Amino acid sequence: MTFQIKGQSENLASAMRTIGYHPVGVSDRGELNCVRPIRGDYPRFHIYSREDGNQITINLHLDQKRPSYGEGSHAHSGDYDSETVRDEAERIKSILR
After folding, report:
1. CB-based burial label for 92 (10 Å; 0-12, 13-18, 19+)
2. Which residue of 13, 36, 72, 94 has the lowest C-beta tally within 10 Å?
3. In a 3-state reduction of DSSP, which class is residue 16?
């Protein structure tokens, strides 16, 4: 699920920490890669975020389990549109407004 939020006065990494996400790196597209575990390592919410002018674009999904594909593969089985993901998007929006 991808959505936008009006830009914040804090930097992107700080905004992600404010909503409970931990930055874990930067994607090959320059997006900040962040996670918020639900129980242990998995399942976890996973965000790729970037600043676009005066707004933040967030690409959110739910990783149910550790990836089982080989190194170098880009296949992904994340949940992008369940009720759980929609609820998490609303939680994020309510905090960052």
Report:
1. buried
2. 72
3. helix
